Amino acid sequence: MDKKVKKYVKIGIVIVIIGLFIWFLVLSPYLTFKKNENTMKEAAKRYIEINAQEAPTGNRVKTITLQTLYHKAYIKEDFYVPYTSKACSLKESWVKVKRVNGEYQYYPYLKCGVLESTVDHKGPVITLNGDDAIIVNKSEKYQELGIKSVVDNTDGKMSNSSVTIKSNVNTEEVGNYEVTYSVTDSFNNKTTKIRKVTVVERLKNAVNQATKNQGYYMGSNPNNYIYFSGMLFRIVGLDGDNVKIIADTDIANVNYAGIEKWLDYYYDHLTDKAKKMIVKNKYCNMSVAENTTDTTECNSYTNGKNTYIISIDEINRATANDGNFLKPQSMSWTANKKDDNNAYVTRNRFFGTEINKNYLAEDQTDNYGVRPVLTIKGDNLIQSGTGTKEDPYSLGEFTYAKANDLLNTRFAGEYISYSGYLWRIVDVDDDGTVKVISDDTIKKDGQNIETYYDTSAKAKIYNPNQKGNVGYYIKNSATEFVDTSYFVSKNVTVPIYKEKILYGKETDTKKYKVKLSAPNMYEMFSAFVYEGDSMQSYWFINSSKKQYIKATISDIGVVLPQEVYDNMEFGIRVVGYLNKNVAVSKGKGTKQNPYTI
Question: Fewest C-beta atoms under 10 Å: which of 68, 141, 147, 349?
Answer without folding.
Answer: 141
